[in-house]
Amino acid sequence: MNTDENILREKLKDKKRVVIKIGSSSLTHAETNNIDLYKLEKLVRLLTDIRNQGKDVILVSSGAIAVGRNAAGLVGKTLTLPEKQACASLGQAQLMTMYQKLFSEYSQKTSQILLTKYTMLDDLSRYNAKNTFEELLKMGIIPVVNENDTISTYEIVFGDNDRLSALVTALTGADLLILLSDIDGLYTDDPNLNKDAKFVPVVTKIDDEMFQMGKDTSSSNVGTGGMSSKLIAAKIATESGADMVIANGGHISVIEKILAGQNYGTLFTANYNEEFQMTDYLTE
Ligand code: GLU
């Protein structure tokens, strides 16, 4: 790591409000799609500890459909939209029960926030959601956020929780977003197809060339976001004034390493744009 990179990484130690997004593939066992309880426990303990350090913490967790699909005995079946939505309804409640139980072991309060695209598009709903987040964080609560998959259909879906977590970062004025995925970060090309693909440790400006590099490289078949959705998330987060790190969620401890200023994943540095409007990212 060169000195400039070092300085940028060091700054992550001082973040005050952190949004962490974890995808379904990082929360489930690849062989069975069942929830990985060991990882869930570690995640909850770590987030509580970050909260105990005095930082505000928001968790954006996928997994509702994956958990519900298992509970409904539909693993391996291609789901129709109503089936997906029914699975989300079933799975979200189960997932939240697990989070509640695990957080309560550390006397940490948690709450659920389910958002749709319309929450962000409508000025009043967005204002109310912002106030709710603010109040929860003031109370020391760790909100667990997901898309309201049960009522979101084709035109109202966020698309994926990558974008959702970036919008939550912008809405709450968080200063860091950590996106945990099944990939190590950004490469110059798809590392599965091109052995010369190079890892990119820091991005200070997101341009069109970068979107070319970020062709969908995710191997995940349980979540929805590939690298291009992560780059859109990076644009939203950095333009709103936050740093963002994409890292591999294979080991939950990567979160504390990132917050300790260590060189993990790809860091996208904040690039505040005073004309930034989150609604610009909700229209397509
Ligand atoms: N909201 C979906 C779920 O919880 C996942 C969306 C995503 O993986 O981006 O199952």
Q: How would you describe this structure to a colleague?
A:
By secondary structure, the chain is of the alpha/beta class. It is 42% helix and 16% strand. It is built from eleven helices and ten strands. The protein has helices spanning 3-10, 24-27, 37-52, 64-71, 81-105, 117-121, 123-138, 161-172, 208-213, 227-239, 254-259, and strands spanning 17-22, 56-61, 110-115, 142-147, 176-181, 186-187, 199-200, 202-203, 243-248, 266-268. It has an eight-stranded mixed sheet with strand order 3-4-2-1-5-9-10-8, sandwiched between helices. A two-stranded antiparallel ribbon has the order 6-7. The relative contact order is 0.17. Mean pLDDT is 90; it is low at 218-224. It binds glutamic acid. Glutamic acid binds at residues 23-24, 62-66, 88, 146-147, 149, 160-161, 223-225.
Largest sheet: 8 strands, mixed
Which hetero compounds are present in the coordinates? glutamic acid
Instruction: Provide the helix percentage.
Output: 40-55%
**Structural category:** alpha/beta
Helix and strand pattern? HEHHEHHEHHEHEEEEHHEHE
